[in-house]
Design a protein that fits this description.
Length: 85
């Protein structure tokens, strides 16, 4: 309803990391959002997941907010976003 595609889980098996799999998944999600007429892609990640935060920043996503006590563990989720237009 807000022109967003929300990515809650983007997981690559440890043996397949650093081979472009995550980048391709993100690229395809972005393409799908664009074809669907959406405006922004938003990804949520735990503040404790530094590799994922570095990955998202390297992919050009920018910090756009957070949710405190987001998961059952009460961890904080940080949000990263990019325009898909």
């Amino acid at each position: 309803g807000h022109g967003l595609v929300w990515v809650q889980d983007l997981v690559v098996d440890r043996d397949w990391r650093r081979r472009g799999v995550g980048s391709e998944l993100l690229r395809r999600a972005t393409e799908w959002a664009r074809r669907s007429g959406l405006e922004r892609l938003v990804v949520e990640v735990s503040t404790k997941n530094d590799p994922a935060i570095c990955f998202l920043r390297a992919q050009g996503l920018a910090f756009c907010g957070y949710h405190d006590q987001h998961w059952r563990t009460q961890d904080v989720a940080v949000l990263f976003a990019q325009s898909v237009r």
